[in-house]
Amino acid sequence: MTLAVYVSRCAGRVDATVDVESALAGIEERAAVVRVVDDLFDPAVGEQIVSDVAESGIDAVVLAGHSVDHYTKSLSGGYLEERLVSAGVNPNRIVVANLLEQVALAHPDDPAGATTKAAAMLEVAALCAETNPPVEGIESEPKRSVLVLGVTAEALVAAQRLLNLGFSVTVADRGAGSERVARRPTSLRATASFVRSHPAVRFVDHASLVDGDGWLGDYRVVLDSTDGRTTCHVGGILLARPDDPAWVEELRRHYRVDIDEDGRARSIDPMRHPAETVDPGIMVVPTRSDDVLERDVVAAADSAAMAFMLKLSQPRTVHFQDTSAVDETLCGGCATCVRTCAFGACSLDENGVSHVDLRRCRGCGKCVVSCPVGARDIVSSPHDYLLGAVRSLARVPVDGDRVLGFLCGGCGYPAADAAAAFVGERGSGYPAAFFPVRIPCGGRLDTLYVLEAFKAGFDGVCVYRCREGHCHNLIGNLDMDRRINLLRAVLRSREIDDARLRIVDISPFEGDRFVESVEGVFDSLATLAGAKGGAS
Amino acid sequence: MSKPTLVTVSLGGCEGCHVSLLDAHEGLLDLLGKVELLASPFSGPAEMPAHADVVMVEGAVTTDEDLERLEAARAAAGTLVAIGSCAVLGGIGGLRNLTRLPEVTGRAFGPAEKSDLLPQLLPQVHPVTDFVDVDITVPGCAPETPLIVAALSAAVAGEPYEQPRRNLCDECHREKKAMLTHSAEFVSDNVYALMELEAIDAETCLLEQGVMCMGPMTREGCGAKCTAANVPCRGCSGPSRLDFEQGGKTVDALAAVLPAGALMFLEDLVGTGYRYSLPVSVFPAIHTSKEADDA
């Protein structure tokens, strides 16, 4: 494996706290190429990376600097990854080391601690890039068609844009949607008429969503309506009624959709990216206030339509499946994965061996954890990597207590990013001996990782999971709760105080609560028998 | 050409694995026809010879004497075959690792001082693999006779022996119904002891009847005789992969299948999950931190 590491100073924000040169000392022995730049998104850096890949035969890459969400939460954030992939690096071997939000900005008053931690995060990212198996993408020609859920002004405007671009559009409504379009008052009347009379539009009234699978470019959605059952094959889905609990719940049973504190569907980042959701082929419009301006309605619809146009006008889309095949020499067909999968993706085949319906799988990892023989894995955070990360972080020199945080990618990880702003306002960081490990879902947390953490030398383990009802894998958070709480008996049987193990439910924007929770763990460790003290 | 030599040794255990070997009946004659048996509990006390082509070892390492005899066995053996869950996993006696040694001896022998002439208990129970390399392992309590015969025959013939790897459900005759449908609900409203069931459905998965069955967490090979006899699997063959401990996986696999609250109030969740494999788990005994050792 030939590793390249690119460290971004993030315009001086990383090296304001981290001594980048010292942080790189360990990784320089391991990597064929190490470059430190001001900004990874500088076009010249992109050129440099592509030429490094060609010249040095790079097949694993660590991009260090911003949070992983910086790359995934925007239409263009994938630009660097796309360049690397087209240069020949497997996408599963491009890994982000979060040195900005979760290191430099988190510990502004502890440069030594932050530098040690930065080195550790680089090691762990390199381990991930080198451990991850290469993945093959599933290619498809995107369907130039969109399903719109809910007849609203945004729905009509987006439908009009998409129809104009040559897409076909299905508009489903829980009530008499087509009649409401016909009776549209003066506002957007021309748009409504255009949509109604277009040959490529279809209305499904009194509809509910009863089944669905697939991914960007190739979704299958089954709708029930008074006219019977309709199956739509579409390239994308626009939820135009994010405030309708029935649509939200039905959609969430089959696809990943995040919800806000009030249970409404929300985009991946409502402040910056109003349309895109965690599923790249599903768009939402912002929930409206009563005094919304029509221009904002039109802008929201335009954002969604533009996103569909960019994504579905490509000649092909590539879907990366996060679940490995099952090891048939181990699987005895116990069916715990079948029972556990919230999306109905697992089943037993004719030989009694577990099989994953790729179109239904959302890559949460619940089947992996529930599998008692370890016959399956998640390819983006495989077992060997997670175990290796726990052991690696346990070796980092720290004074006082050492805490491991398992951060669910849907809540704890973005909350840790959001904590950077809170720390900035407060002017003081949380203890640098808190080491984060990102997992795709609380449901991915194998009890083995917690046991290994204590064995390897962590004094406390903190697991972050979504609030009840907010897990975008439906019940990954509850399953994790059950496992972790049952594990307490195991810890106590070995005379390990289970107060060292803490579950925190958190929302992705709660940076302040994240900091409080970390400091709370260190404070409580200081009160336990055998306390080392010193860290907080 | 002389026949390959065989020695069988019993360490800390119940000799049930030797009894299982005796259960081969006339099959034993076939095996004995192929080897020269140098020493065995069958043939009375005997010294470990300097060399034996195959040494079968049963039992865990629980005393200083067990350790000496194991080391002698390894030194003598061309091929060392560990038979039974005590040797391979530490076994049921390994549950004593959840109790400190003075309390163990106090409860077992009372307050009287134990004679120095008797072997001294080690602080914890170990599988033989904690001390020596083993060439063939056959877990089980006791392993089914054909498994022991197959392993010894392979060792004697110098052929590789592969253990079955899948979990027990593969061999179990019971049908799954509720387990084959995904649901956020548990498959049962409670966790029941066998005697609490009004009737045991002989054809349906025991988990679906709310019975704590260790089958999913347990290596196959035994033929699932317990579940065929309306008794849940107790997990005696240990996990399919030793790098996934059986006790932790019991929690991982069943927390979403059986009512987690009921599991929590199970009389002995830890003893159930780790019944045969505690000494090979992540924490093979009570944990004493380095700081506590230094203090």
Integer tally of domains of chain B: 2
Oligomer class: heterodimer
Q: What percent of the residues of chain A sit in helical stretches (DSSP H or I)?
A: 25-40%
Unreliable stretches of chain A? none
The structure class of chain B reads: alpha/beta
For the record, what is the CATH homologous superfamily label of the largest domain in chain B? NADH:ubiquinone oxidoreductase-like, 20kDa subunit
Instruction: Give the number of DSSP strands of chain A.
Output: 20
- Let me know the average pLDDT of chain B: 93
- The assigned structural class of chain A equals alpha/beta
* Global shape of chain B: globular
List the helices and strands and how they pair.
The complex is a heterodimer of chains A (536) and B (295).
Chain A: E1 3-8, H1 20-23, H2 25-30, E2 33-37, H3 43-56, E3 60-65, H4 68-72, H5 79-87, E4 94-98, H6 100-104, H7 111-131, E5 137-140, E6 145-149, H8 153-164, E7 168-172, H9 177-182, H10 189-197, E8 201-204, E9 208-215, E10 218-225, E11 228-234, E12 236-239, H11 245-252, E13 282-284, H12 294-312, E14 317-320, H13 336-340, E15 346-348, E16 354-356, H14 366-370, H15 383-394, E17 403-408, H16 412-426, E18 434-439, H17 447-456, E19 460-466, H18 476-493, E20 501-506, H19 511-527
Parallel strand pairs in A: 1-2, 1-3, 3-4, 6-7, 6-12, 7-8, 12-13, 17-18, 17-19, 19-20
Antiparallel strand pairs in A: 5-14, 9-10, 10-11, 15-16
Chain B: E1 5-10, H1 16-22, H2 26-34, E2 36-39, E3 52-58, E4 61-63, H3 64-76, E5 77-83, H4 85-89, H5 101-109, E6 121-126, E7 136-138, H6 145-157, H7 225-228, H8 246-254, H9 260-264, H10 269-273, H11 290-294
Parallel strand pairs in B: 1-2, 1-3, 3-5, 5-7
Antiparallel strand pairs in B: 4-6
